[in-house]
Amino acid sequence: MVEIIVDIISLVSIFVIINLSLNLEYGYTGIPNFGKVFFVAAGAYVVGALTGRIILWIYGLKIDFIKENSLAVTKINEILSNEIFIGVLVFIFVLTVSLIVGALLGFILSLPAIRLREEYLAISLLILGEALRIFAYNYEPLVGGTLGVSVPDPFIWVNNYGINRFHFYAILLVSLAFITYFLVNRMVNSPLGRTLRAIRENPLTAEVYGKNIVRYRMKVLMISSALASMAGGLYAFYTANVIATTYNRFDWTFWPWLMVIIGGLGNNIGVTLGALIVIVTRKLIVIYKYSFEKIFPFRIEWLEYILLGIVFIMILIYKPEGILKEKPVETIPREKIEKLRKTERF
Question: Is 257 helix (H, G, I), strand (E, B) or coil?
C-alpha cells in the first residue's frame, strides 16, 4: 500500500508540472497545445540519450550504450553507487539540458506555428508530437528504437543509507513540483499574467494597446515547453528507462488536458487537484478493474479509455469551468490610486 501511495505522489508531481505548463498556454494565453507529448518526449529522450553516454565518457569506458545497454547501465550504476557528487552533477546537467532543449524546440516551432489560427495550431502541434514518437521508435541510435534503453540511476547511492529509491524520488519530485507551482503562480499573478489574460480574451484589443501578441505567445510556448520537457526528463529518471512507445498522445496530451479541464482552466490549484483526481482514479481502475470484468459487456482493458470519454463529455456539458473557477484578476482600488497620486508614488 505504501508503494502505491508513493507512486501516486510521484506521478501527481510530474503531471502537476505538465498541467501547469498547459494551463499557462491554454488557460491563461489561449494557445491550444495538443502536441504536449512532443515536449514531454523530448525531455525524456534527452535523459535517455545523454545520461549514460556522459558517464561512460567521464570514466573512459568503451561500451556501446545502445547495443550493450544492460552492461553499460550495470557498470554505471556500480560507479554511481559510490560517487554521490558525479551522480548529482550529471542529474542537474542532463535535466538542465532537457529544459534548454524544450525551450529551443518551443521557440523553433513557435516561429511558423504561432501565427496560425487556434485550430490549425492545435493540429500542427499534434502532428509534431506523433512525428517525434515515430522518429524515436525507428531511429535506434537515439534511445534504442523499438527496444528502448535503461537509464542509469544518478541517486542509486541513497541505497547505501537505507533509503528507498522510490521514496527519495517522490520527495524530489514533490519539491520540484512545488517550486514550479510557485514560479508559475507568481508569473500569472503579475502584470504579465494580466497581459496574457487580455490576449486570451481579445487579441485585437490587446494589440491595439500596444502588446506584441506574437512575441508574448512565443515566450509562453518556450517557457511551457521547457517545463514539459523537464517533466519528461523527471519521468525518465523515475522509471529508469526510456521507450519511444511510452510517450504517446493519449497519456501525455489527452490525460493532461482532461486534468486541466476537470480542475479548472486558469486556476493553478484547480489543475493540481485535477491531476490528483485523475491519477488516483486511474490507479484504482488498474488495481480493481478485473474485479468488475463480468459486469461490463466489453473487454475490461478498454474501461480506462471509455471513462476518459464519458468524464470529458460530462465535464464539458455540466461544468465547463471545472471544479475550481478561474479567480478574477484583482485590480487596484480607485481610492488607493488617488492616494498614490497624491504622495507622488504612482
Answer: helix
Give the residue among 201, 320, 321, 230 at the shortest CA–CA distance from 36: 230
What are 160-185's pLDDT values in tens digits? 999 999 999 999 999 999 999 999 99
Q: Is 214 exposed, middle or buried (0-12, 13-18, 19+ CB in 10 A)?
A: middle
Q: What is the pTM of this model?
A: 0.91
CA–CA separation, 274 and 312 (whole Å): 12
Residue with cell 500542427: 124
Query: What 3-state DSSP class applies to 346?
Result: coil
Please state the domain extents for the chain.
2-248
Listed residue (236, 42, 51, 41) closest to 152, CA to CA: 51
Report which residue type is found at 329.
V
Predicted confidence (pLDDT) per residue in 249-285, tens digit: 888 998 999 899 999 999 999 999 999 999 998 888 8
Is the separation of the CB atoms in 249 and 126 below 8 Å? Answer: yes
Cell output for 27: 488557460
Distance set, CA 203 to CA 25, 68, 195, 331 (Å)? 14, 53, 10, 20
For the segment 300-309, the average pLDDT, to the nearest whole number, is: 77
DSSP code per residue over 31-93 = -----HHHHHHHHHHHHHHHHHHHHHHHTT----TTTTHHHHHHHHHHHHTT-HHHHHHHHHH
Cβ atoms of residues 69 and 150 within 8 Å:
yes
pLDDT digits (tens, 9 = 90+) for 65-120: 999 999 999 999 999 999 999 999 999 999 999 999 999 998 988 777 666 666 67
Look up residue 227 and give its amino acid. Answer: L
